[in-house]
Amino acid sequence: MKKNKQLDNSSVVDLKKKNNKKSLSYHDLRPIKPLTDSQRHMIESYCQGMSILALGSAGTGKSLLALYMALNDVLHKDRPYNNIKIVRSIVPSRDIGYLPGDMDEKISVYEVPYRELFSFLFGMPTSYDRFKEFGTVEFMPTSFLRGQTWDNSIIVVDEVQNMNIHEINTVMTRVGTDSKVFLLGDSKQTDLYKHSKDQTGISILENALRDNKFFDTVYFTKDDIVRSEFVKSWICGLEDVNY
Length: 243
What we know:
Elements: H1 37-47, E1 51-56, H2 62-74, E2 83-88, H3 103-108, H4 112-122, H5 127-133, E3 137-141, E4 153-157, H6 165-172, E5 180-185, H7 202-208, E6 215-220, H8 229-240
Parallel strand pairs: 1-5, 1-6, 2-3, 2-4, 4-5
């Protein structure tokens, strides 16, 4: 296990535009502190060099923490990471044929949560697109991954419960040297039909990583929900009826 590192502000990299607009650097990144024990576990394990499998309730901050830590690493030039790959499956219509517009417009629908998270982290609505423009962030549906190798990357695999095991395997076999992975999901939120041939691979993934030396698994429960008291009360009620 690698030596523990802190989320500091030394040796930062600036992300600049040619027209001299405001730079984006680590100094612009909103500081995030853990609010629950599970969030603290996730941050500490990642800072010790581990990739992370984060499973559990909605509204617990899994995606926010993953992107914050990924950006922290990418924006420090003394660390080996050059870019962030955000990967998710296009569900329920993987072929994205039913949405209007060209391919980029169809895919853009699934990038909305990340635009909002980047806007929160930098206080700038255009920050996600700025990072994409410079190639520091790339959004990738699972349909277009074959033949790629991701070196020096932080790979954030979101909504993993919406991937079957073949998609998960395709993602995991893209990981190259000096790269780390976040796998984020909640088995109760899968959009795949449980009794169809297209079943979620999240249980197989969890079992496969149980003794994997590169991964630590962090479990989030209803007690870790930080989005709002409304969301927490709803999920608690849903769990009480054994949904």
